[in-house]
Each structure stands twice: as C-alpha cells, then as structure tokens.
C-alpha cells in the first residue's frame, strides 16, 4: 500500500468515524430536548398565548410531526446551519455562536499553546534532571492541584487587586477594536496595523489562559517525561550520549521525536477537557465567549442555546482528536508503519475511540 493511498484511506476512515460520533451526539441532544421540561412553544410565545396561537406555533416549529420526523428535520436544519432559536436572546443560536465563538477560540488556542509549551518544558527538564526543575515542577503541580475557579480568583486578587498589573474582566480595554478578519484580537491588531490592540489583548489573555492551561500542562509534561526516560534507554540515544553531545541536544534532537506519540494523545485529550475549563473561566473573567453565553442561558432554561454550544464543542473535540491522530503518524514513523500493517489486517492502532477513551 503506497503512502499517499494509506493517508487518504486513513483520513476517510477518520471522517467516517467523526460523522458517526456527531450523529450520536445529535441523537442524544435531541432526546434530551424532547424529555426536558422546557416547552419551546411557551418559551417563544409566552405563558399567556392563546390555544390557537400555540397550535399555529407547533405547526411552524414542526412539533406536530412524529418524533422520528422531528429528528430528521432537526438534522436537516443542522446541516444548513440552523441550531434553533434562543429563548433568551430571541435570535438564532447560530448567530449568537458566531458572535461569541471567536472569543472562546482565541482563549482556547492560547491556553493550549501555553499548556504545550509548559508541558514540553516540564517533560524535557524533568527527564534531563536539570537544575531548578524541582521548583518548576512544584509550581505547576501546585497550580494543577488547585481548582480552576479558585486559581482564577487567586490570580485576580494578586495581579489585579494587589499589584494592579493585569486587567480583571473582559476581553479588551480598547474601544472599537478591529472586527476582522480572523476574530482574534491578537491577530487582527497586527493585520490592521494597530499593535496596541494586540498588546492589550494579550494582557487580558494572560490570567484566563494560564488558569486554563496549567492543569493540562502538568498532564502533558508527566506523559512526555515518562516517554523521554524510556527513550533515553534506547541504543541510538545511548550512542548519541557516547559521542559527548549535550543533554539538551540528546533530549530535544534524538529522544523527543520518538517520545511525542503518547504526549500528543494526551494533548488531544486535554484539548477536549480544556473546553470544559474554558466554560468556568469565562464566567469568572466575564470573558465574552460561548462559556459566558452558556452560563447566562442555563438559568433561563434556554435549551437550544445549551444544545448548540454542546454540539459545537463536541464537533470541535472530534476534529482535534482527528488532527492528533494524523500528527502522531507524521511524528513517529514507527507508528506509521505499524498502522499501515494493521490496516491490512483491519486492526488499526489509532482511532477516535482510543483517544476519547
């Protein structure tokens, strides 16, 4: 089997698995909506609606059809970007998510980037037993052992309340920041030639991103450390050591690539869990993302909004794990050859089910 054909087949398998998982998620969300106590008709029309108005609204919403027909109508709407109407904002959920999602994506992106950097530092420095590693490890583990909301509140008390170094809430302090093209203020500021926007956006990102990243960083670092220690005992690494190469070069050049597989799997898992952390942190920092949107929707029983956020996060998790599977194959040639051999016997090593388990 040629390499290009293998990758095409691998990607197609991942897409098929992703579609099955997303369909399962939509079925669960539809079932939960159907058994919930929220009445979409009363939510749209109000408690004082007349029986004729309620009957007309049921026909409009398709609630007069059998359940399986309603589900297929629900799927048809999802395919066309229709996530329903928010009871609270009285706007399409898709429009609300388009407004709130860029803020969450920016926070999640920098949180994941920070988690990977800290995890690499922790893993490499711990495996190499460099001086000062114990201090870094103690700080990260202490932070990871603290609940995220408590860590966020502590950061606010110290860096905003006492030192007045970082802002407390919100996403940016500049009026009328650029609205495009990416939706990331840190990038849009550069693209629009306004570096003050980028600097200000980073100031607002520091506390929430660190609060989200420290837990995943420790998990990634521990897995990477174990893989590096195992790789150090391999013959080619011992050969590099015998040539008198520095510990940093041996670890980063010779051992690191062969140790990335488990760390990448952990990164994919932590990226999915990170979205749950973002929901909490956004509420603490009044960050205008989908977590903040969800926190406002829950008290009002806005099920379409909650279901829309859940679906978006679920699809994002599936996509992230698919990317991690591909990254593992590129990072470790041994895994690629094993996967190709197992595909021939129809026993693939990698897959969404393995990552998500």
From TrEMBL:
Indicate yes or no for the key word tRNA-binding: no
Tell me the SUPFAM superfamilies matching this sequence.
MetI-like
Q: Where in the cell is it found?
A: Cell membrane
Which Gene Ontology BP terms does the record give? transmembrane transport
UniProt-listed PANTHER family: DIPEPTIDE TRANSPORT SYSTEM PERMEASE PROTEIN DPPB-RELATED
Is Membrane given among the entry's keywords?
A: yes
The species this protein belongs to is Acidithrix ferrooxidans
- Print the keywords alphabetically: Cell membrane, Membrane, Transmembrane, Transmembrane helix, Transport
Q: Which residues cross the membrane?
A: 12-32, 107-127, 139-160, 273-293, 305-330
Every ABC transmembrane type-1 domain range: 101-324
The record's Pfam families line, in alphabetical order, gives:
BPD_transp_1 (PF00528), BPD_transp_1_N (PF19300)
Q: Which family does it belong to?
A: Belongs to the binding-protein-dependent transport system permease family.
Going by the entry's taxonomy, the superkingdom of the source organism is recorded as Bacteria
Tell me how this protein sits in the membrane: Multi-pass membrane protein
What is the protein named? Dipeptide transport system permease protein DppB
Q: Name one GO cellular component term.
A: plasma membrane
């Amino acid at each position: 089997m040629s390499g290009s054909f293998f990758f095409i087949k691998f990607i197609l398998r991942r897409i098929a698995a992703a579609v099955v998982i997303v369909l399962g998620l939509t079925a669960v969300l539809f079932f939960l909506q159907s058994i919930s106590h929220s009445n979409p008709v009363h939510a749209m029309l109000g408690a004082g609606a007349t029986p004729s108005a309620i009957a007309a609204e049921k026909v409009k919403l398709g609630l007069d059809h059998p359940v399986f027909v309603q589900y297929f109508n629900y799927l048809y709407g999802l395919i066309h970007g229709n996530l329903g109407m928010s009871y609270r904002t009285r706007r399409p959920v898709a429009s609300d998510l388009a407004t709130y999602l860029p803020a969450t994506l920016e926070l999640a992106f920098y949180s994941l980037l920070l988690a990977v950097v800290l995890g690499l530092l922790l893993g490499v420095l711990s495996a190499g037993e460099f001086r000062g590693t114990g201090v870094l490890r103690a700080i990260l583990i202490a932070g990871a052992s603290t609940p995220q909301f408590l860590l966020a509140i502590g950061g606010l008390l110290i860096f905003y309340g006492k030192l007045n170094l970082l802002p407390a809430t919100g996403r940016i302090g500049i009026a009328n920041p650029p609205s495009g093209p990416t939706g990331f203020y840190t990038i849009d500021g550069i693209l629009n030639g306004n570096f003050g926007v980028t600097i200000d956006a980073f100031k607002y990102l520091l506390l929430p991103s660190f609060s989200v990243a420290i837990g995943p960083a420790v998990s990634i670092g521990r897995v990477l450390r174990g893989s590096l220690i195992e790789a150090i005992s391999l013959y080619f690494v011992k050969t590099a050591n015998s040539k008198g190469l520095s510990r940093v070069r041996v670890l980063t050049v010779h051992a690191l690539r062969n140790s990335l597989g488990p760390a990448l799997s952990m990164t994919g898992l932590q990226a999915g869990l990170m979205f749950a952390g973002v929901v909490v942190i956004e509420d603490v920092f009044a960050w205008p993302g989908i977590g903040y949107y969800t926190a406002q929707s829950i008290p009002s029983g806005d099920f379409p909004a909650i279901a829309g956020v859940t679906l978006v996060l679920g699809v994002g998790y599936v996509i992230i794990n698919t990317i991690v599977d591909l990254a593992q194959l590129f990072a470790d040639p041994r895994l690629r050859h094993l996967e190709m051999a197992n595909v021939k016997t129809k026993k693939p090593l990698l897959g969404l089910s393995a990552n998500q388990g």
